[in-house]
């Protein structure tokens, strides 16, 4: 596949870690904040790397959907960073909504990958 398995695995792991961190938020705990910041940076780095890729035409639709998902995830990370600084619940709500949309788009990209693999056996 065009998107590297490592990149997708790293993204999935970072998103899973975010979910785990928010199951027990500790905004006054520096270690918790560092862990959150690490996942934010990982997601931003994946986004920045992915938008530079030039997919083969046969995978352009998959890549486009993947980038759409990453745009929402990336926007969410900036909102989360701002939320950490300002502790404004509206920022957290906005970040959550963007994560949900990103997850939906990522599922759509995954479905396209499965369809591609099925037709290119």
Question: How would you describe what is shown here?
Answer:
Helices cover 81% and strands 0% of the residues. It has 4 helices and no strands. It has one domain. By secondary structure, the protein is mainly alpha-helical.
Short synopsis of the structure:
The chain has 121 residues and is mainly alpha-helical. The chain contains 4 helices and no strands.
Q: What layout of secondary structure does this protein have?
A:
Blueprint: H1 5-23, H2 30-50, H3 60-86, H4 89-119
Helix pairs in contact: 1-2, 2-3, 3-4
Descriptors:
81% helix, 121 residues, mainly alpha, 0% strand
| CA radius of gyration | 15 Å
The H/E string reads: HHHH
Low-confidence regions? none
**Residue-averaged pLDDT:** 92
Helix content: over 70%
User: What coarse outline follows from CA principal-axis ratios?
Assistant: elongated
How many helices in DSSP terms?
A: 4
The largest sheet, given as strand count, sense and whether it forms a barrel, is: none
Helix/strand structural class: mainly alpha
Number of domains: 1
Q: Between the first and last Cα atoms, what is the distance in angstroms?
A: 12 Å
Number of strands: 0
Percentage of residues in DSSP E strands: under 5%
């Amino acid at each position: 596949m065009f998107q590297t398995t490592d990149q997708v695995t790293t993204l999935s792991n970072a998103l899973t870690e975010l979910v785990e961190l928010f199951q027990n938020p500790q905004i006054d705990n520096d270690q918790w904040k560092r862990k959150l910041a690490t996942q934010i940076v990982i997601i931003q780095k994946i986004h920045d790397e992915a938008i530079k890729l030039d997919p083969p035409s046969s995978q352009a639709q998959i890549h486009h959907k993947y980038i759409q998902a990453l745009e929402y995830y990336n926007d969410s990370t900036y909102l989360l960073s701002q939320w950490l600084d300002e502790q404004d619940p509206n920022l957290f709500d906005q970040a959550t909504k963007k994560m949900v949309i990103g997850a939906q788009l990522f599922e759509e990209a995954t479905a396209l990958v499965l369809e591609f693999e099925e037709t290119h056996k």
